[in-house]
Design a protein that fits this description.
Length: about 400
């Protein structure tokens, strides 16, 4: 198992960043797991290797609104760690074959929910909103969380909803306006819903083949596949197998990178045609994508101060990050978007340095102890001592927080 480090920084509203990471991870006894619900009394304890504690660490007592002003290592060891989804006050993290749900809205405790899927089934996508928070497993089935006022939150397999998509779901994304997009049929179809209620009702509607309503379906050409979808405040973006970017939803602030108004179906972004992308990220009204071949980063959308991250003044043109052009040895490895700020992770083939950079257009940049800058500034952390030829790096963002994952290649 490769060595992995997970760092967190930002606004830790309800312990969704650190939580119980600094002490004990739990492993559910899969032998007691029915495959539909998971109860906390079947939990077994184990300890990981020592963690990087902050100088002012006071154990695990963290109240609402605590700020991690500099990156802290919240987990390390010979473990496979992936941040599936980061919201405002909830985070979904996969550790080995477990999924940890952290935050406030889903459970009324600082102790993270540690979840185990049936043997051989791993979480492949996280999605979430106040009424919709769960995972999609590698078998294309949708898992949901339900709260019982008299007990803790349970994870259960929504068989009817999964059956409505023929158990072929790859991703589910939800905008801030509670529109839902489902990527299914091995990535060849996207179905969008105008509300969460309509999405939940899809299993019943499927029986009657709902006529009208807000449900829209889009199919790619058979030789192409969508690989992922991401959601912002009012819009969606998607990436296909050839690296083409698609967008749809509202276009109030140029977040679609399309001329005109709102779009009901995914349409390819003309400005980026012929430039294969390998990663897309969006949050709020800003979207960023990382090119597959040239490692360039394109950014578009809107923040209160577009100069901060170099956003263009027109709604159908993407700005390109040219800060690293003079250093041909620097390669951008990952990109993530928060609420008005963009984060990049880079490596260098000569100095072998791993770096994290941030530029922001909102007051949330103060959370990271950084002043506003029209260019990307470096975020200092323990990863800087690791060689890029030995380790990889990836960044993930929530509205007011970010995670940095460093892993042994």
């Amino acid at each position: 198992m490769p060595k992995t480090w997970l760092y967190a920084v930002g606004l830790d509203i309800y312990c969704q960043l650190r939580g119980e990471f600094n002490h004990i991870h739990g492993r559910l006894d899969s032998g007691n797991c029915t495959g539909e619900t998971v109860e906390p009394d079947c939990r077994k304890k184990r300890k990981l290797s020592p963690l990087c504690e902050s100088e002012n660490d006071d154990g695990n007592q963290m109240g609402a609104g605590v700020i991690l002003g500099r990156p802290q290592c919240i987990a390390q060891g010979n473990i496979d760690v992936e941040v599936l989804w980061v919201g405002w006050s909830e985070t979904l993290v996969r550790i080995d074959q477990r999924v940890e749900l952290r935050g406030f809205r889903v459970y009324k405790t600082d102790v993270p929910r540690i979840l185990q899927l049936p043997n051989g089934v791993g979480a492949v996508s996280g999605f979430g909103w106040a009424e919709l928070l769960g995972i999609v497993d590698s078998c294309g089935q949708i898992w949901r969380f339900k709260s019982d006022p008299k007990s803790t939150t349970n994870l259960y397999l929504d068989k009817e909803l999964s059956a409505a998509f023929n158990n072929t779901v790859l991703h589910v994304a939800v905008t801030g306006s509670e529109h839902v997009a489902v990527l299914h049929d091995c990535g060849t179809s996207i179905t969008t819903f105008s509300s969460l209620l309509e999405f939940y009702a899809h299993s019943e509607a499927k029986k009657e083949e709902l006529s009208g309503g807000g449900r829209k379906q889009f199919r790619l050409d058979q030789h192409l596949q969508f690989t992922c979808i991401r959601s912002g405040e009012l819009h969606f973006v998607a990436l296909d197998s050839e690296g083409q970017v698609y967008s749809w939803g509202d276009n109030l602030h140029g977040e679609l990178l399309q001329q005109g108004g709102s779009l009901l179906h995914p349409q390819s972004v003309p400005t980026l045609e012929g430039i294969p992308m390998r990663e897309i990220a969006t949050n709020g009204f800003v979207t960023a994508c990382l090119s597959r071949d040239t490692k360039d980063v394109y950014i578009w959308g809107w923040t209160p101060d577009t100069r901060i991250i170099g956003l263009p003044n027109t709604v159908d043109i993407a700005g390109i990050v040219d800060q690293f052009d003079e250093d041909e040895d620097t390669v951008i490895e990952s990109v993530a978007v928060g609420n008005g700020f963009v984060v990049l992770a880079s490596s260098n083939s000569v100095t072998y340095e791993l770096c994290v950079w941030i530029a922001g257009g909102s007051d949330l940049t103060d959370t990271f102890g950084l002043s506003r800058s029209e260019t990307f500034v470096k975020v200092n952390g323990d990863w800087s001592g690791k060689r890029s030829d030995e380790y990889g790096i990836k960044v993930s963002c929530g509205v007011a927080s970010m995670f940095i994952r460093v892993y042994d290649k």
